[in-house]
Automatic annotation (TrEMBL):
<dbReference type="InterPro" id="IPR050661">
    <property type="entry name" value="BglG_antiterminators"/>
</dbReference>
<dbReference type="InterPro" id="IPR036650">
    <property type="entry name" value="CAT_RNA-bd_dom_sf"/>
</dbReference>
<dbReference type="Pfam" id="PF03123">
    <property type="entry name" value="CAT_RBD"/>
</dbReference>
<dbReference type="GO" id="GO:0003723">
    <property type="term" value="F:RNA binding"/>
</dbReference>
<dbReference type="GO" id="GO:0006355">
    <property type="term" value="P:regulation of DNA-templated transcription"/>
</dbReference>
<feature type="domain" description="PRD">
    <location>
        <begin position="65"/>
        <end position="170"/>
    </location>
</feature>
<dbReference type="InterPro" id="IPR004341">
    <property type="entry name" value="CAT_RNA-bd_dom"/>
</dbReference>
<dbReference type="InterPro" id="IPR011608">
    <property type="entry name" value="PRD"/>
</dbReference>
<protein>
    <submittedName>
        <fullName>Transcriptional antiterminator, BglG family</fullName>
    </submittedName>
</protein>
<dbReference type="InterPro" id="IPR036634">
    <property type="entry name" value="PRD_sf"/>
</dbReference>
<dbReference type="Pfam" id="PF00874">
    <property type="entry name" value="PRD"/>
</dbReference>
<feature type="domain" description="PRD">
    <location>
        <begin position="171"/>
        <end position="282"/>
    </location>
</feature>
<keyword id="KW-0677">Repeat</keyword>
Amino acid sequence: MRVQKAFNNNIVSAVDEQGKEMVIVGNGIGFSKKAGDMVDQSKISKIFYCAENSQEERMIKILKDIPIDLIQVTNKIMEMAQAVLNTKLNPMLLITLADHIHFAIQRTNTNMVMPSPLGHEIRYIYPKEYEAGSKALDYIKSTLNVILPKEETIFIALHFVNSQTEYEDISDTLKLSRILQEVIQVVKDELRIKIDESATTYCRFVVHLRYFVIRQLSKEQMIDDDVLELYDMVKTKYEKAYYCVQKINTLLKEKYNMVYSDSEEFYLVLHIQKMLSQLKGELHLQA
């Protein structure tokens, strides 16, 4: 690999033997380097292959302002998150997450707290990502001696969520999360019960709800003709859960212009009914 341009001591653009362009990050990798010099591969921390010039420009603009030790810390955070989530994260997350943490540290140093746009219910919607976000804050504290506010757990968790989806912008993940939160609040208000958010039935409901909302945002539908006859029976048998789903329908149609199949409604009713049944069983046991 040969250097095309050194942007600072820690960032260079380069080209490999096949002519592929890339941005390389590493401690001292750009020191005293000029176009045509060989890249010192022992100093490489991360390589980003560029799909287009505009992508390279955006990466360099962000990376130039981030200290190399923070990039290395972020890289370790990603490795920890991948272990928690048991999945590979998009390599581009290193840039967006390092950028976020960089500004989070700056805000903390000036006593500025950015309120989370979403509540702490995120820990139940994305439990593994929340766990990884919490570990990230602990690691930042131990390595950089910076105590970030607890709200940052949610922001970092959402970066992990976004990295596992096809969404290009974290604003899409925020929209998905807001819809989930609003639907869950409808369920709580309509059923007028205190839901045990650690219960298996609730966790399964949230997982189902997450993929249900993703399907609606992607304009996809789950069609299962085999359940349609059962649905007529379910409407009567599980009346409370059915009317709760009608409230959800109203919210999603009026606010987000979502209309979906009876099959989707059927499975929502079943999940809500399972939560109700579990709660009634617990109340019966307590009595």
